[in-house]
Amino acid sequence: SSTIPRVLHPFLTPGEVTLIKDRNPFPDLGQSASGRLVAKGIDAVDGKTLSRGRKVSNGYVESAWKIDEEVTMRVFKGSTLLFELPFNNGKLDTDLPQGQYSCILTIPRFYAYFIRDCAVGSQTNYLGDLGFSPMLNPGNTRVVLNWGARPSDLDSYLRVPPDPSGGDECKVWYRNKVCNANSIKVCHLDLDATSHGRRGGKPETITFGVLTTGKYIFWASEYRGRNEQGLLNSGATATFYSEGYQVRYRVGRDGYVDGINWYVFWIDGATKEIHICDRESCPPV
């Protein structure tokens, strides 16, 4: 029959369901030339490789989880599943037919990682260190900043409003990694990444405790940058995780760049609503 079957493939991770619907017949890949695809799966909170048997952070406690399964990458053409590729010792190094794909990567107890543009070209294609966020505790949120080979260092910043019970406004960054310490409202820079290179590098990660009334502002800055070109050419993304949804922001598309700073989003702590930054809502610092 010429009718294309409509099939749902559910991929389940704790607290998360991803549904992929087939719309196309399996493509004829023919004698397509191949390209090399290289990646590594890491815990976005402690930066450790997600290899079977290794103990990693659960997002809050160091070495709390032992990894029982390797990361699996599923490669799609359109909405058709082509390949299922298990990692080995937390790494992937494989040949695939050249082409434009999208990829979904999963590992138990971590949120799924989606790569819309998972292209394979003739050269070695480095996906870099893919930072998987551990499942969040109720009421918590997290932001993971990723970028490519250049610049070598981007830094995450989070302005935290004063606690209504007392205290001053606080800023989370590499010189002050914790605000509202010893509180359910704690905000913490979990991972401070430096020295990105040809294969990329680790992400920067901030975990938010229970939000308090006030305005939270998240932005990224190029360390020792000179102008906006470093950020605009970085391929940077900031992925926001909450109990109910994920949002991925991309530099040059979301928020705005002012010199060496990319102002990404702000959160109304009272309503828990997240908004894209503009110059009025997130004035340059």
Any overview of this molecule?
The structure is a single chain. By secondary structure, this protein is an all-beta fold. Helices cover 1% and strands 44% of the residues. The protein has 1 helix and 23 strands. Strands 15-16-17-12-19-20 form a 6-stranded antiparallel beta sheet, with no helix packed on it. Strands 13, 14, 18, 21, 22 and 23 form a 6-stranded antiparallel beta sheet that branches. Strand 4 and strand 5 form a beta hairpin. The relative contact order is 0.14.
Keywords:
single chain; mainly beta; 285 residues; six-stranded antiparallel β-sheet
Portion in beta strands = 35-45%
Oligomerization status of the protein chains: single chain
Distance between the termini: 62 Å
Estimated structural class? mainly beta
Largest sheet: 6 strands, antiparallel
- Computed over alpha carbons, the radius of gyration is 20 Å
Topology as a string of helices (H) and strands (E): EEEEEEEEEEEEEEEEEEHEEEEE
Which percent range fits the helix content? under 10%
Low-confidence stretches: 1-5
Total helical elements: 1
Indicate the mean pLDDT.
91
General form: globular
Which strand order does the major sheet show?
Answer: 15-16-17-12-19-20
Number of strand elements: 23
